[in-house]
Amino acid sequence: MKPVGIVDLQHYAPPGFMTADEIAAASGIPAEVIRARFGLAGKHISREDEHVSDMCISAARPLVERNDPSRIDAVIYFGSHWKDRGIWQVAPKVQHALGIEGFSLETINVSAGTPFALKVVRDMLRSDEHLDTILLVGAAKESRLIDFANPRVRFAFNFGDGAVAVLLRRGHARNEVLASAMLTDGSFTDHVHVPAGGSIEPASHETVDAGRHYLDVTDPDDMKARLDPITMKNFLKVADEALERSGYERDDISLFLPIHMKRSIHDALLTELGVPASRAVYLDHYGHMSAIDPLLGLSLARDSGLVGDGDVILALAAGTGYSWAATVLRWGAS
Q1: Average pLDDT in the 79-106 region?
Q2: CATH number given to 178-333
Q3: Which are the contacts of 79, defined by CB distance < 8 A and separation ≥ 6?
């Protein structure tokens, strides 16, 4: 079966930047804690009038200019649930703005999105001979969903804004997307959400006045008590399965691309996987951007020369709901 490889990729970081000191002032958490425990020097913040579609277009336009847009058969959005509008799709707007023919669709798995999206695109291209190239785009504007006065969402104080775009092609024998592994525990489904705005609690003057349109956690103590014993185990389970299905093991990892998480968990994963810190991308100047972190990390690694031919790359993510997912890539020639 023909390989599916990454032809090109590009990230976009809005120029606005919120420093660790500013996060500390907004949250009341000491700046040294933000830097050391949250692992955050700062994060990029979009303009109020700059939406996820705008950021996707900013990331994707250079790809279209560098490559042949007539070969692109589809635009797939895999970024944040929180978009320009409710009950609305980003992908068609991106497709139209970039002058791409074909079709568009969306696949959204919150912070676990990168491995899921790479699997979806790989499987589509491998199974359908009518598809040649797919443009994958994602963005996040979650910084605007955070109420720094709410201690229940401390874990989300690292949420920032940005976008990434990736061009993938069937039969492209470089930068191949290999196997994936996923795991979901739906018992966590109601822990993290925006309370109002859906059919359970429609938007009203009362919900706005009560601040019910910011991210919240129903029971932080219960979520932590149940997640802590299984998080590392599930991260390693999907990582090992994706590596094994790709013909590799932990010792083969050349580059580690996780979502942004607090420093202690990141360091523990490095130890368990046997990856030196110099071979991982830690987004301490970007924060966590919903689905796009691992692909943003790959774009940064490519631009800085951190990734080279023959490197085995592990993209690892987890997202509320609660899912853990991993995808393996092999950089350079197959």
Answers
A1: 97
A2: 3.40.47.10
A3: 52, 56, 90, 108, 113, 137, 138, 139, 140, 163, 290, 291, 292
What percent of the chain clears pLDDT 70, i.e. is strictly above it? 100
Kind plus residue range of the DSSP H or E element containing 68: none
Q: Range(s) for CATH 3.40.47.10 in the chain?
A: 4-173, 178-333
Q: Residues of the chain with pLDDT > 90: what percent? A: 99
The single-letter code of the amino acid at 322 is Y
With 80 as the cut, is the pLDDT of residue 334 above it? no
For 156-188, letters b (16+ CB in 10 Å) and e give bbbbbbbbbbbbbbbebeebbbbbbbbbbeeeb
Q: Provide the residue type at 283 as one letter.
A: L
Q: How crowded is the C-beta side of 189, counted as CA atoms within 13 Å?
A: 4
Task: Answer whether residue 1 shows pLDDT above 90.
Answer: no
CB of 329 within 8 A of CB of 176? yes
Q: Which residues pair with 141 in a beta bridge?
A: 161
What is the topology classification, in CATH, of domain 4-173? Peroxisomal Thiolase; Chain A, domain 1 (3.40.47)
Q: What is the dihedral of CA 314, 315, 319, 321, to 10 degrees?
A: -70
